[in-house]
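Hey,

The postdoc asked me to send both predictions to you directly instead of through the lab channel. I've kept everything plain text so nothing gets mangled by the mail client. Protein one:
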Amino acid sequence: MLKAGSDALVAVRNAYSILRPPEELLQVFESSVTGATERSSMNDVIKKLTAEQAFEVVKRLSEKGGEIREAVLAEAKSLLMAVDVDETADEVFCVLDSIDVQDCWNRSGRSRHGYTEPSEAAVELVEEELQPFYDQAKRYRELGMAEQETTYCMGVILGIYRYEHESKSEFREWCVDVPIECAGYLLDMWQERNQGTASAEAMDEFIRHRCPKWAKYLIRKREVGS
């Protein structure tokens, strides 16, 4: 899955919605550190931070106020503004494609809570992997970043689409129709904010062009919901 730096980034995004992976926090510290040796040592320390420690560093820096706080906020804005459709799609595809069919077997069957069909377990696994992406889209909405929210949702939908049509994993055979339903769910969330806007037209065009096999279903679903 993700490396330590990426794990830290996920934690920071989820908890504070700002900054870059721990090693890039060095940029914020450099103004208060002198000498190449000291900077190199600081860089080593930053690379050793856990996700939780990275979050705590960001939080403490933001609370200091002044130029340090401004630097943190500038990095946060830079990170959040830089949304790429294909990079987001790649991330979604890799996350879904990494689901092991054995996890589905382990979760299905009888338990003290009753019996779980493999198809039900498959839905749970896909939804759990996609939840962080749903949450990130919601954060863009809460921050009033409509353009970034739209671009991000396009990337997530494309990643799910690619998984449906490109993945060779054994697990995918057990989640037929789940990907398109998940994409439709995200589209519903996005539509709540964007009914009757130019972004809605852009979304329809994107789906027709990049997700052609889903266009009829997703566009009709959006029009019915509007």
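Protein two:
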Amino acid sequence: MRVISGSAKGKKLATVKGTGIRPTADKVKMALFNVLQHGVINFNFEGCSTLDMFSGSGSLGIESLSRGSQFCFFLDVSRESHLVCKKNLQNCGFSDLSEHVLMDIRRKKPFFIEKKFDLILADPPYGKEYLVNILEFVTRNDLLKSDGILVIEDDVRSELELNNNFKLIEKKNYGKTQLIFLIPN
């Protein structure tokens, strides 16, 4: 696994070993960022703030930082993932552009952060029915800017039932993976 583009292009990223964590494949990560930058969205990373939910090794958030995001907040429930993510951030020179928190979004605890995000990237474990939890968490904590984008990576068999707070703008399938691109309604 590596950083695909930007200032840290080509840097190898460590992964969490043997814990059932499934990192985003380089092919899917490249497709996700291509849709954001070159598809109907035309997203500009320069100066944006990013939230990487279910961050694992930090691959998605680090890619965002490499492409020009000014800040990324990493959220995961696994202590081991956080340690690997911090190592990857240090290796890429992005430690000062990030914060981390250990949290299970299903517990409905308040999430106190003073900023809203331009981009939220969520890559939950497949087959765990996290899609509704993600939408509820983002809405309940008012995390996405009015012109922001929420991208969810999940198993292609998962069904997303949108609430009134989000609108689907793009959906792409790559093998067993689907990428869902949402904006606030």
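Summary for protein two, as requested: Helices lie at 26-38, 59-66, 79-92, 131-140.

Thanks,
C.
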